[in-house]
Amino acid sequence: MTGFSYQLYCSRNFGPMDQTLKMVADLGYTGVEGYGALYADPAAVAATKAALDETGLKMPSGHFGLPQLSADPEGVIAIAKALDISGIYCPFLPEDERPADAAGWADFGQQLQTIGAPFRDAGLTFGWHNHAFEFTPLADGTLPIDAILDGTDLAFEFDVAWAVVAGSNPLDTIAKYGSRITAAHVKDRAAAGTNDAEDGWADLGKGTIDWATIMTALRSAGTTHFVMEHDNPSDDARFARASLAHAKTL
Question: How far apart are CA 90 and CA 149, in angstroms?
């Protein structure tokens, strides 16, 4: 079975990070996915590296913000080498920067294509990670995710649950993009109007998403990197434990 990584952003309200990594390793995760605060400066990189070495966890992928990717590609590559990150994903675009039409999103895709060149040249996977807005149809019916990805060779880290929140069928996305989905976020959505204290998210297997079918489709498409996530758990250890236990049954 493919091992599961843990998105460390889930534990941003807990910690400290060395204790989070020990918890994740003790539960049986094989890797973690990083986010900006863990490599904000050289001291943070060194601390993250030391904690990974202590637990034996790997960090095969990391989220890096667009400003850092644009302004300092050499610095990002150095961080990736220091932490053994092989997959870099740009995770978000602020609302006030989002294009209004398909042409604008296509231009943004080309911008990402250009930004990604030095990372691909360095032998790294480079791609986009979605939220719900990329799966919300524009006025002409185009999905921003299609405008971003079409005409590029960007990799795609598919956050399945955000697509579901937007009303999209994730099986259609998997069928369309296939092997370009190099990673997937594995998380669940509570029934409508429930679990408001955790922003409507749920531990894997406790929500409404048909992960048995989706996981089969992802694996058939060639996805090999799966990242467990909950955007706002009230108890990160509970979430991490329960979700991994359910993932092992899929």
Answer: 13
Say which residue the tokens 């973690």 belong to: 32
Q: Kind and range of the H or E element at 59?
A: strand 58-63
The answer to whether residues 129 and 141 touch, using CB atoms and an 8 Å cutoff, is no
Which 3 state secondary structure label does DSSP give 162? helix
pLDDT tens across 137-167, in order? Answer: 999 999 999 999 999 999 999 999 999 999 9
Q: Quote the CA–CA distance of 202 and 230 in Å, as a whole number.
A: 7
Token pair belonging to 224:
């090999």
- Other residues' Cβ atoms within 10 Å of the Cβ of residue 46: 12
- Contact indicator for 91, 52 with CB cutoff of 8 Å: no
Closest CA to 228 of 40, 79, 29, 13: 29
CA dist list (Å): 9 to 6, 36, 118, 164: 9, 9, 26, 21
Runs of H (alpha helix) within the chain: 17-27, 42-55, 66-71, 73-83, 102-121, 144-149, 160-165, 170-177, 211-221, 236-247
pTM of the complete model beyond 0.90: yes
Is residue 1 over pLDDT 60? no
Query: What pLDDT digit, counting tens, does each position of 188-208 carry?
Result: 999 999 999 999 999 999 999
CB 176 within 8 Å of CB 200: no
Whether cis (ω within 30° of 0) applies to the bond prior to 16 is yes
Beta bridge partners of 128: 90, 156
